[in-house]
């Protein structure tokens, strides 16, 4: 069913998407209060980020610079759930780009496929929008024990 109510806000101007969400009066055709549901792009990015992190084998999201800033945020007790995720939102569809770090020695293609499915399902179920595509970029591999110890071991001095 198409939403024929006049928009109260311009979603393109606010950086948010608006769509009839499944289960609402606009989507089901039931007689209830009318209006628009506006979901900000940042919310959709967070939903995608949470879904991607929930996939077994995903160590982290984002490239090197994003993870460095994330480490600083972790020290101050903050977390960016949308780190490593970029979404493009249309009227009824979402496209997402997700950058992941995979645990070694897991099969990267399978992890990427699992991330793609998890992100698409989360956006469709929680946001109520169609997913046009989910692109997954494996930007690094995490080797337990090796990568964990980087920078934490004391550096031996060569001079006394």
What does this structure look like?
The protein has 160 residues and is α+β, with helices and mostly antiparallel strands. 33% of the residues lie in helices and 24% in strands. It contains five helices and six strands, in the order H-E-H-E-H-E-H-E-E-H-E. Helix 3 (41-53) packs across helix 5 (108-127). It starts with 10 loop residues before the first helix and ends in an 18-residue tail after the last strand. Mean pLDDT is 81; it is low at 1-10.
Give me a quick take on this structure.
By secondary structure, the chain is α+β, with helices and mostly antiparallel strands.
N- and C-termini, Cα separation: 78 Å
What ranges have pLDDT less than 50 throughout 5 or more consecutive residues?
A: 1-10
Biggest sheet architecture: 4 strands, mixed
* Structural class designation: alpha+beta
The arrangement of helices and strands along the chain is HEHEHEHEEHE
Shape: elongated
Q: How many beta-strand segments?
A: 6
**Continuous helix count:** 5
Strand content: 15-25%
The radius of gyration is: 20 Å
Mean pLDDT: 81
* Helical coverage, percent range: 25-40%
Blueprint (SSEs and pairs):
Layout: H1 11-14, E1 16-18, H2 25-28, E2 38-40, H3 41-53, E3 58-61, H4 64-75, E4 85-89, E5 93-103, H5 108-127, E6 130-142
Parallel strand pairs: 5-6
Antiparallel strand pairs: 1-2, 3-5, 4-5
Helix pairs in contact: 3-5
What descriptive keywords fit this protein?
160 residues, 4-stranded mixed β-sheet, 6 strands, 33% helix, disordered N terminus
């Amino acid at each position: 069913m198409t939403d024929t109510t006049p928009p109260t806000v311009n979603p393109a101007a606010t950086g948010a998407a608006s769509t009839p969400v499944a289960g609402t009066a606009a989507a089901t055709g039931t007689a209830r209060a009318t209006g628009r549901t506006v979901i900000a792009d940042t919310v959709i990015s967070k939903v995608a980020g949470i879904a991607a992190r929930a996939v077994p084998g995903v160590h982290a999201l984002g490239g090197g610079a994003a993870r460095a800033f994330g480490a600083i945020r972790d020290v101050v007790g903050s977390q960016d759930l949308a780190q490593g995720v970029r979404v493009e939102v249309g009227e009824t569809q979402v496209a997402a780009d997700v950058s992941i770090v995979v645990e070694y020695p897991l099969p990267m293609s399978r992890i990427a496929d699992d991330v793609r499915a998890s992100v698409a399902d989360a956006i469709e179920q929680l946001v109520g929008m169609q997913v046009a595509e989910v692109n997954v970029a494996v930007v690094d591999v995490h080797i337990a024990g090796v990568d964990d110890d980087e920078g934490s071991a004391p550096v031996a001095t060569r001079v006394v």
